[in-house]
Each structure stands twice: as C-alpha cells, then as structure tokens.
Amino acid sequence: MKLNITTEAWPIAGKFSIARGSKTEAHVLYVEVSDGTHTGRGEAVPYARYGETLDSAVAELEAVRAQVEAGIEPVMRPGAAGNALDCALWDLRAKQSGIAAYKAAGLKSLSPLKTAFTLSLDTPEAMGAQAYANARRPLLKLKIGGPDDLARVEAVRTNAPNTRLIVDANEGLTLADLKAIAPELKRLGVVLIEQPLKAGEDEALYGYDCPVPLCADESLHTRAELDHCAGLYSCVNIKLDKTGGLTEALALKQAAKDKGLMVMVGCMVATSLSMAPAMIVAQGADFVDLDGPLLLARDRDHGLKVTGSILSPPEPALWG
Fold first, then answer.
1. Structure confidence at residue 17 (pLDDT)
2. Are 41 and 32 in contact (CB under 8 A)?
3. Does any domain span residue 274?
4. CA pair distance 234, 212, nearest whole angstrom
5. Are residues 76 and 188 in the same domain?
6. What digits encode the pLDDT tens for the residues 94-116?
7. What DSSP line would sit under 138-203, residue for residue?
8. How many domains does the chain have?
9. Domain limits at 228?
10. Residue 319 within any structural domain of the chain
11. Does a structural domain hold residue 117?
12. Cβ(201)–Cβ(226) under 8 Å?
C-alpha cells in the first residue's frame, strides 16, 4: 500500500464569513491510498476551532504512514486527518471490490439530496442582497453573531419570503441573547438555531424551552458527546471532519436517531470530494447542509452535479 498526503487551496467565490472570521480560500487535506492497481481518495478540512492546522493533520497522518502502508488500518482521534484517511479507505475498498460505498454502508440506493445554501455573515443589507439572489432555494442557512442579528434575519426574510431558514450562531450568543432573539426568530419562520452558545457553556440550556429547535454543532463530535447533547438539543449536526470519517458518522447518525434526535449532516467549505461520502450519511437526514462546493469559485474534476439546490449522487470517478 502507498499513502500520499498533500494540501490544497481552493478559491472561494468572494468571501466567506462567520462569527469567528473570514476567508477567501478553502484549505484542504488531500489523501490517496493505493494498492498499486486501485487508488482511494479522501479530503478533509482541519479546523482551528478544534486545534487543527494543515500541518498538524499532515503530521498525524505521517505518524501512521507505516501502519497504513503495511495494510493496517490505524486508530486515529476524531478530526480531519482521520476523516481524510477513513474516506480514502472506503473509496479504495469500493474500487477493489466493485461494490459501491453506499451499498457497503447498507443502503440499497443513493438518492439526490436537497441542500441548504449558506449566506455568509455580513451587514443586514448585504445579507438581504444575498437572500434575494438565492430566494428560489428551498432552504437558506444564515450565519449570525453580532448586535444586528435580528436585522439580518429580517432582511433575509424580506428578500426570501418563501424560503425555510436556519440560523447558525457558531457559538456567538449568550443565553440572554438567545432568550431575547428566539421568539423573534420563530416569528420570522426560522426552523432551526444552530449552536447558539459556546460548547463549554451550553449546560446553561438545560431546562430552557426554546421556541425554535436547537441544534448542536461544536458541542458534538462523536457518540462520546451524544448523551450530553441529547439533554440540551433536539438536533445534532454530523460532520465527517468532526467524527473522524464516514465510519463513525454512520454510527453517530444511528445513535442519534435511536435517541429521537433530529439529524443535520453538515460540511466545511470544501470540494465535492468532501461532500461525496457525507451524502451517504445524509440519506434520510432531517436537514442537509452540503453546500461547500457551491461556495467555491471552482470545484474538483468530476464534481457533484448540482441543479439549483439538488445534489446528484457522486460519479465513481469522484468517489465511492
């Protein structure tokens, strides 16, 4: 077996901003695992919020290179490095066996998915303009995190009157902020509020009956945090970069469903190679947020075909 590790930068269409900052490029980790005949590919996005960088993710993979090249699948911590390797191995096994990854995951088919489209954090006027340009999309996700949050949501609602809305605070609110804004968000037709409080402070949500369902993102990485989150949230956002790959993501989804939680399957800003394995997890999810490639200026060859907000299943030339 041969392990190849590289890093890549993909230009974003314009600028992408959340409560923590802005970026104009998506920096991804790209992994190939080859048996000499077949090559499996995986992609992931290290996230500074979780103490990851491209360099640290590469170092994690270099530390297990000998195991991988000896045909041993290493145990890795949850995160981007593990995700890239896990997805590359799924892809390799699919190519070796001729059995599509979705079938190996227990699915009979892989259906097209309707994804949310994310509106970058900006002024209310600018976010209203973004909403107007995307008003025909069935689901918009707004990044918030500042004193003008309600004005932002109102501007989006005015310019996209028939669209379902998700609000994502990326840990940018306090409990007092949430209590003040949540009734207004319900009035404006928001169907979900994602990660309002900081992950280490979300115990404050215990006993709070929010008028809009709450979704855990930064608070939940793997099944290890699920019991904690089940008492505070009604939905969980599963991202392969958090779980450490498709294997744990599938297990987490089933465990969340067993607890009666709604499931969102999300992503980082990345190419279609990151979205392809996530589409397996997203089958039957309550919310799908796999718009990463839609936010890029260009995508990888053989990228997912997108019609409006509908993602088609990946071609074998891409993944799986």
1. 73
2. yes
3. yes
4. 10
5. no
6. 999 999 999 999 999 999 999 99
7. SEEEEE--STTHHHHHHHHHHHSTTSEEEEE-TT---HHHHHHHHHHHHHTTEEEEE--S-GGGGG
8. 2
9. 113-311
10. no
11. yes
12. no
